[in-house]
Write a structure and sequence with these properties.
This protein is α/β, with parallel strands linked by helices and 410 residues long. It is 41% helix and 13% strand. It has helices at residues 10-33, 91-97, 119-138, 150-161, 184-191, 194-201, 206-214, 218-229, 236-250, 257-269, 272-275, 307-310, 313-316, 333-336, 338-354, 392-398; strands at residues 44-50, 53-58, 70-73, 102-106, 143-148, 166-172, 203-204, 255-256, 279-280, 283-284, 294-299, 322-327. The strands form three sheets. It has an eight-stranded mixed beta sheet, sandwiched between helices. β5 (143-148), α4 (150-161) and β6 form a beta-alpha-beta unit.
Length: 410
């Protein structure tokens, strides 16, 4: 019987093992020197808060190029600092450098007192209160909504219900048509027993959903990336880049049970949004009432929100000015990839500046890179906190009593 180890070069193997050990020791030394992993460092001012939610306005980095403020609505399942993960890979900073007035909603971390919050509470309650706060802060009649992933779905729903407050709608890698079976997430969600999950936990722990996301690409997300990490362990800056992404991936807030229940059952399982059957409170969501300009962005290699879930949106709205934008990359690469830094923020800024006037213009060529405005810093203005009425359903949630419209099991 042949010896399977007879062809191994012992000297070469010892050399590789020595290099590996050297990298590992250097990496351990660097890790012990890192005291804090800094994320979300762009300067911003808190202008409004309600329950767990905080609304921030970013400090301008150049002269304002667009009069209508931009409100970023992020998904509930992750933290919004992904958009400002580090100074040289910051979607937010790129928008600021191009003269946009940017606000962002930080949803915070729900607790058991929030278990009965519904989609109605989040959209007609919290988002509407934030829109009012932005309108007052920026002294603007309308806002431009920029929704990310699930936040894009929520932003579209809000725009259909409150079109008079929205100047422009931008959606990034957001799902609308849930009938597709592309991607494991859409397959899993269609068969998920969300009633059992919500009834058991109330507020579904973030790590449960996060484990599911990791299993969508088990080899890449659980093994390969840690093997690849060895190649950057000797470089402190590259190691910090890796750790920032790890921090974001595992920093997953819990999910308010009733909101998650409705989102899974009405959207993933019932596909009610595109069917015109989705109800929030006593109102039915009609996407045909979205008449403002829309910019719908999808990622060609998105494994979480496949293009088939995003692209049909443009055929369902009532807007005449609508643009479908394909980004060559994945779900996260839209915001942190090197291509994104050069391409996406300039394209969005150009699109918004063209539609800054009250009368919307027709869609023009999308993939153009505008010249950055001269960077003339201006002083940040402290904005007063805005007092806004709390939605009825939210008030009920905070008294720890289930609202009368709590969804029932199907």
């Amino acid at each position: 019987m042949n010896n399977p180890f007879s062809n191994i070069d012992a000297k070469l193997t010892m050399k590789y093992l020595g290099e590996f050990n050297s990298k590992l020791m250097k990496g351990v030394e660097l890790l012990t020197d890192i005291e804090e992993i800094d994320v979300g460092t762009a300067a911003k001012q808190l202008i409004y808060e309600e329950d767990k939610l905080k609304l921030y306005r970013y400090k301008a980095e150049t002269d304002k190029a667009c009069g209508v403020p931009v409100l970023v609505v992020y998904a509930l399942v992750n933290r919004p600092y992904m958009l400002d993960i580090q100074p040289d890979r910051s979607f937010i900073r790129n928008l600021l450098k191009l003269g946009l007035d940017v606000y962002i909603i930080d949803w915070g971390y729900p607790t058991q007192s929030d278990r009965y919050l519904s989609m109605d509470d989040y959209i007609n309650g919290y988002i509407d209160n934030c829109v009012e706060a932005v309108r007052k802060s920026a002294k603007s009649e309308k806002v431009s909504l920029m929704g990310v992933c699930q936040g894009g779905t929520f932003s579209a729903i809000y725009s259909a219900l409150h079109p008079e407050k929205v100047q422009n709608l931008i959606t990034l890698v957001a799902p609308f048509d849930f009938s597709t079976n592309d991607g494991l997430l859409f397959n899993w969600s269609k068969t998920m027993d969300v009633d059992a999950l919500v009834d058991a936990y109330g507020v579904v722990p973030g790590n449960i959903l996060n484990d599911g996301f990791l299993m969508l690409m088990p080899f890449n997300l659980n093994i390969k990336k840690y093997i690849d990490m060895l190649d950057v362990m000797e470089d402190k800056e590259k190691l910090l880049n890796f750790l920032r992404m790890e921090k974001w991936i595992f920093d997953s807030p819990g999910q308010a049970g009733e909101c998650l229940r409705q989102f899974v059952k009405d959207c993933y399982q019932g596909n009610k949004l595109v069917k015109g059957k989705l109800k929030l409170g006593n109102k039915t969501v009609d996407l045909g009432k979205i008449t403002m300009p829309i910019l719908n962005i999808y990622a060609s290699a998105d494994h979480l929100v496949p293009p088939a879930a995003t692209k049909p949106f443009n055929d369902l709205v009532g807007s005449e000015d609508k643009t479908l934008y394909e980004f060559q990359g994945g779900h996260i690469g839209v915001f942190v990839g090197s291509r994104s830094q050069k391409e996406l923020a300039p394209a969005i800024s150009k699109w918004l500046i063209q539609r800054d006037a009250p009368a919307p213009v027709k869609a023009t060529q999308v993939k153009v890179t505008p010249k950055p405005a001269e960077q003339t810093p201006i002083k940040a203005t402290l904005m007063p906190k805005v007092a806004a009425a709390k939605p009825a359903a939210v008030k009920k949630a905070n008294t720890a009593k289930a609202p009368s419209n709590k969804p029932t099991k199907s």
